[in-house]
């Protein structure tokens, strides 16, 4: 079994009923919802909503130590119009708009919102990452194919030299 996988993502929520209503408004349907938790089957993984206090207890941590927004969940779409529609649906469902969908420096199109508990979601269209018919994402390089050429107007970014950045006091090289 490969260690490079995630099978379950659990979001700690302040109000489980409110969180379930929000995700229902996005079109998500629970696969199972025993008392105190709600599970959504995804492609090869499961998303769970679990009360924040219960999650903290399960982790043996104080609830105040659980944060939100330090990571991003993402959904990729095939077109900019699909990104716009999903973003509008999220905002209509009560999401907090963080960044409306727009063309971005890496040649794609994306926007961000936060769910009612502050969990950040990115909605994106990446022209370099084609989606499977079922919406799944497998990096082109992982399939043994070369990544598609970047759009002509993004050649400058995609062919840039490697960058070096500092993160937590350590140098990190970002390849071209």
What would you say this structure looks like, in words?
By secondary structure, the protein is an alpha/beta fold. The chain folds into 2 domains: 1-67, 2,3-Dihydroxybiphenyl 1,2-Dioxygenase, domain 1; 68-176, 2,3-Dihydroxybiphenyl 1,2-Dioxygenase, domain 1. It contains 4 helices and 9 strands; from the N terminus they run βαββαβαβββαββ. The protein has helices spanning 16-25, 52-59, 80-92, 155-158, and strands at 8-13, 37-41, 46-51, 72-76, 96-103, 109-114, 120-125, 163-167, 170-174. It has a 4-stranded mixed sheet with strand order 4-7-6-5, with helices on one face. It is globular, with a radius of gyration of 18 Å. The two termini are 31 Å apart.
Large-scale geometry: globular
Q: Estimate the helix proportion, in percent.
A: 10-25%
Distance between the termini: 31 Å
CATH superfamily of the largest domain: 2,3-Dihydroxybiphenyl 1,2-Dioxygenase, domain 1
Number of domains: 2
Strand order of the largest sheet: 4-7-6-5
User: Helical stretch count?
Assistant: 4
Order of secondary-structure elements? EHEEHEHEEEHEE
CATH first level of the largest domain: which class?
A: Alpha Beta
What fraction of the residues are assigned to beta strands by DSSP? Answer: 25-35%
As a whole number of angstroms, the C-alpha radius of gyration is 18 Å
Strand runs, count: 9
Largest sheet: 4 strands, mixed
CATH topology of the largest domain: 2,3-Dihydroxybiphenyl 1,2-Dioxygenase, domain 1
Tell me, rounded to a whole number, the average pLDDT. Answer: 84
Structural class: alpha/beta
Low-confidence runs: 154-176
């Amino acid at each position: 079994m490969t260690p490079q996988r995630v099978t379950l993502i659990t979001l700690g929520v302040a109000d489980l009923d409110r969180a379930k209503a929000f995700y229902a408004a996005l079109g998500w349907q629970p696969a199972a919802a025993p008392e105190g938790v709600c599970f959504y089957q995804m492609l090869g993984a499961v998303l769970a909503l679990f009360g924040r206090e219960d999650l903290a207890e399960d982790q043996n941590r104080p609830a105040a130590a659980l944060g939100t927004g330090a990571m991003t969940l993402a959904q990729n779409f095939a077109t900019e119009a699909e990104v716009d529609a999903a973003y509008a649906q999220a905002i209509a469902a009560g999401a907090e708009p963080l960044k409306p969908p727009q063309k971005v420096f890496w040649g794609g199109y994306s926007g961000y919102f936060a769910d009612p508990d502050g969990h950040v979601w990115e909605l994106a269209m990446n022209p370099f990452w084609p989606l499977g018919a079922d919406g799944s994402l497998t990096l082109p390089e992982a399939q043994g194919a070369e990544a598609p050429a970047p759009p002509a107007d993004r050649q400058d970014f995609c062919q840039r030299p490697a960058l070096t950045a500092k993160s937590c006091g350590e140098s990190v090289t970002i390849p071209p």
